[in-house]
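Homework help thread (please don't just give me the answer)

Our assignment gives two proteins as sequence + structure token strings and asks us to describe the second one. The first is just a warm-up. Here they are:
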Amino acid sequence: MAIPPARRLLRSGFESDWHWLGSRPCRWRRSLSIRCLDGGESCLVVDLGDAIDLAVNRQVRALGLALERARVRGVLEAVPTYRSLAIYYDPLTIDRNALGQRVGTLYDSLDDQDDQTPRIVEIPTVYGGKYGPDLEFVARHSGLSRDEVVRLHSEPLYHVYMLGFMAGFPYLGDLAEQLTVPRLSTPRLKVPAGSVGIGGRQTGIYPVESPGGWRIIGRTSIRLFDPSAEAPTLLLPGDKVRFVQREPHEYESEQRGRL
């Protein structure tokens, strides 16, 4: 009888360590679990949690760094998300079961020292007016003044959980709960590059002009994505971001300096 892919993984050497969670294999370590899911014939998704959580995201990133350092033959790319790591591989070089075993071994070898000291990046931001057309809506919806919204948004040091949606777009979690607002019912067709938006308990920055449904409260002159640069994206998962308020004339001067 053919063995389903998930059971083949269980029977390939993990019998004593792997347990079942629903129909999928999982392994417990500390307070977190790891689940290997099939992402296609050349992608293994390693799931470490089911919520936006800083501890989970740190483990995701640490596992990605450990995989990079291990230089596992056949692994092409590892992409971290909020709570999982998508590992793209060449199935002609390494099969899914062998990769799952290697990932399990690497995960067991992680320790707290795998979390590197983060970079702190300041993002100069002009709030409101034509640069932040939804600031007034956010203030009304939250029952706050405009200045209180700006203070609450610019006060925290945000963790970059992941990049996604488009090249260089940082997902910054743990936005102040008071600033949680619904997204636009109809997304804008064009959101200018550098726009600072709010989506649920997240905030982020549009690196290039694009459509978008987040509430736009400000804009920065900082370029987040440059495909010609050696490091095309300014921010990376694990970095820390602080928004620093600027006046409109300062933003406009910075923009002129870029031209």
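The one we have to describe:
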Amino acid sequence: MTARRKSPSKPLKKTLPLLILAGPGLLYFLINSYFPMFGVFIAFKDVNYAKGIFGSDWIGFKNFTFLFQTSDAWIMTRNTLLYNLAFIALGTVVSIIIAILMSELLNKLYSKLFMTGLILPNLISMIVLSLLVFAFLNADSGFVNHSILRPLGLPEINWYSEAKYWPYLLVLIQIWKTAGYGSIVYFASIAGIDKSIYESAKIDGAGKLKQIRMITLPLLKPTIIVLVLMSMGRIFNSDFGLFYQVPMNSGALYSTTQTIDTYVYRALMQLNDIGMSAAAGLYQSLVGFALVLTVNAIVKKVNPENALF
């Protein structure tokens, strides 16, 4: 008796609906992430529009040299790195706290309402947000100066001229805007934890804080590691709207608001040099890739089960 041979078309029929569902996502990544990789060579060319991109002269690493020999190279690299580290650290902590608080709300309707309210800031565009911030910080009629500092007899602050306040303001704005949205994944992970574990802990006399410390946080650890690893890949990128629109492109604030992205944009507006822009993009991508590999290797060494790959 011979075994029945499987039809080669059967696996395809099984996976076809999944492929159709994944199609738009794959198309998005192909267009926005993979096809642009063919333009990497522009970073090594002196682009001349008369000759065309392919006919332009090769100039080696001159675009990279230009990027790093400017007096602002250290400032923009430092700002990009430190802001992203603050966003990752504080954003992760605040998102986890929000997720835990939402999961502890017994009334599911209130939980959903609060969660919706926390996600709303993520839907506000940076242009609208910059106007809201301006309404608060405007030196003449802003809410902070006009309604808080002036009635208390405190000296008013010219927020758009004093750079020292902006590291705190930008971190606060970014956390307010993204923490609610970032808490969704943690909230979903907490919802997936087996409730019988909490019931057993209650029987053993564990209070709410101890349950969070001994059950919720350890079981959230794989999710936290994966999300932090993904964030590390973007650590040399910055939200252009946050660093350009919110400070109103004020020159007095460049020492604390200038990042690699805003510097490249300003350089392009003045020099119209797409070769330098491509060099900055390649630099950001390579450093981000190296950071992901490094952090993943560290995680793999400490706890292989939590590594991304």
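TA reply:
I won't write it for you, but here's a hint about the kind of observation we're looking for: The longest strand covers residues 45-46.
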